[in-house]
Amino acid sequence: QVQVVESGGGLVQPGGSLRLSCAASGNIYSITEMAWYRQTPGKEREAVATMTGGRSIISSDSVKGRFTISGDNAKKTVWLQMNDLKPEDTAVYYCHVVGLSRTRYGTWTDFDNWGQGTQVTVSS
Q1: 3-state DSSP call for residue 45?
Q2: Residues paired with residue 31 on neighbouring β-strands, in sequence order
Q3: What percent of the chain has pLDDT over 90?
Q4: 44-94 pLDDT, tens digit each
Q5: Distance, CA of 63 to CA of 37 (rounded, Å)
Q6: Could you tell me which residues are beta bridge partners of residue 118?
Q7: What angle do CA 78, 117, 45 make, to 5 degrees?
C-alpha cells in the first residue's frame, strides 16, 4: 500500500508565507507525478502545481509568481512554497501522487493516491 501525508498548513496573515510538505511512502517502485490541489467548500478541487518528469508546472494562474513547487524524488517528497498569501488562497490543500508500486503478490500495479489534506487559512 502507498500512503500520502501532507503537513505544514495553518493560519497565516495576508502577505505571509507557508511551506507545505507531502511525503509518499510504502512499496513504491517509481513516481510519475506529484501534485498539489486545493478545494474550498462548494467548489471543485483545483490543480495548483505539479512535479512530473523532473519539471515543475504551476497550473493555477492565480498563484503564478507566488507559489513554487519543488521535489526530491529520492525522498518521495514534494513541497509547495507559498508566498504573498491572500485570503482567497484559503482552502484545504491536497497532495496527489501517481506511480507504480509492488503488490504483496510480487506484481507491479499503478497507484493513484490522495493525502488527507491540510488546511491553509489566510486571515488577519
Answers
A1: coil
A2: 99
A3: 92
A4: 999 999 999 889 999 999 999 999 999 998 899 999 999 999 999 999 999
A5: 12
A6: 93
A7: 95
**Spatial contact of 38 and 45, defined as CB atoms under 8 Å apart:** yes
SS3 41: coil
What does the chain come to in residues? 124
d(CA 39, CA 117): 9
Q: Which residues are 84's β-sheet partners?
A: none
For residue 18, count CB atoms less than 10 angstroms from its CB and return exposed for 0-12, middle for 13-18, buried for 19 or more.
buried
* DSSP per-residue string spanning 57-110: EE--GGGTTTEEEEEETTTTEEEEEE-S--GGG-EEEEEEEEEEEE-TTS-EEE
Q: Which of 25, 4, 9 is nearest to 75 (CA)?
A: 25
Torsion angle in degrees (nearest 10) through CA of 79, 2, 50, 121: -50
